[in-house]
Amino acid sequence: MMGGIVNAVVWVLLISGGFFMVTGALGMVRLPDVFTRMHAAGMVDTMGAGLTLAGLCIYSLHDGAGLVAVRLVLVLAFLWFTSPIATHAVAKAALSGGTTPYTTHGDGEREGRDRP
Amino acid sequence: MNRAPWLWAILFALWLVLSWHFTGLFLFFGVVTCSIAVFVVARMGVLDRESLPVHLAWRAVTYVPWLVWEIFKSNVRVARIILSPRIRVDPSIVHFQASQRTDLGRFIYANSITLTPGTVTTGIVGDDFEVHAIVQEEIDGSEENIMNRRVARLEGEAG
Question: Would the ipTM clear 0.95, i.e. be above it?
Answer without folding.
Answer: no
